[in-house]
Amino acid sequence: MATLDDYKGLKPAWCPGCGNFGILTAFRRAMFELEVEPHEFVVVSGIGQSGKFPHYTRCNTFNGLHGRTLPVATGIRLANHDLPVWAFAGDGDCYGEGGNHWLHAMRRNIGVKLVVHDNQVYGLTKGQPSPTSLPGMNVTSMPTGVLVDALNPLPVALAAGCGFVARGFSGDVDELADLFKEAWRYRGFALLDVLQPCVTWNKLNTYAWYRQRCRPVGPDHDPTDFDKAFELARRFGDSIPTGVLYRVERRTYEEKLPVLAGGPPLTGRPQGPRRLEQTIREFH
Fold this sequence. Notes:
The chain has an eight-stranded mixed sheet, sandwiched between helices. It has a single domain (4-282), classed as Thiamin diphosphate (ThDP)-binding fold, Pyr/PP domains (Rossmann fold), CATH 3.40.50. The N and C termini lie far apart (52 Å). The chain contains ten helices and eight strands. With 284 residues, the protein is of the alpha/beta class. α1 (20-33) crosses α6 (173-185) and α3 (91-97) packs across α4 (99-108).
């Protein structure tokens, strides 16, 4: 059985105090407590501070292009639907450049677990506003403050048909580790939006700011109640609900594809030049 240290990759180069450290700690703890060995899952990322996540985690990894995390994760999942796939992205990476891929991955219900490091700013590229930046926030490229309303991704995810929608706070590692485990156990596409301070570029959404507002949903919350989940998802102000807001079972994309349903992964099927030649002849 793996030890907690077995999940450690390279030494992180994030800024001291970065909220990413809480996400990394919670993820390692969750995998350890689930008794999932480092070779038994894959982590996919794009570019950004969040994109460095697989560098700092010992596991199978793929580090791709900005905004293109989910296409790669989808391809890996379709090639081997027995291999659990985690996708890690930033709020700009996923909700900005990759917004189209995000919407369609949720609609398909592909079995990928998406974790968004939501620091409400572009951190790696020095503090430009992201889709989730709050109005009035001062950033390097907009000294007069952000002018447009912020995107709240959770109601969008619910409207797009996402079957697992959760929000965590990187300053609450215990709750976040539990949310990782909940996402892991869900069969279809899971969205975990993690609020995390950027101590260098975002001086508004600090640890203190989040701690004053983040409130875990109580044990009486029914995650199958869509209307209640939508109402909770819309809250982002003096009170921000955290936890699993919505969870319902849906048929996964893999289960709907005849070529995959009930069969072994594509990676485990016979391959070779003759099979390729036969396929090419069929299209002549």
